[in-house]
């Protein structure tokens, strides 16, 4: 993530419970990707014939080297 945990500005209109659930889910997804690789969790669109995410994850920095 781009900010340190606990260093975010919240609003009076934010749903704090939903935000905490999303943060926990994001953390677990990051742990799975770290353990099993970038292609372990992808959006469904990434499995279509025109998608490039799975291929680009195998490249260095997303580019041919």
TrEMBL record:
Protein species of origin: Bacillus wiedmannii
Domain of life: Bacteria
The protein, known as: DNA repair protein
């Amino acid at each position: 993530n781009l900010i340190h945990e606990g260093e975010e500005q919240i609003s009076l209109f934010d749903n704090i419970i939903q935000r905490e659930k999303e943060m926990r889910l994001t953390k677990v997804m990051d742990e799975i990707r770290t353990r099993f690789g970038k292609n372990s969790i992808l959006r469904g669109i990434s499995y279509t014939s025109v998608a490039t995410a799975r291929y680009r994850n195998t490249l260095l920095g997303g580019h041919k080297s």
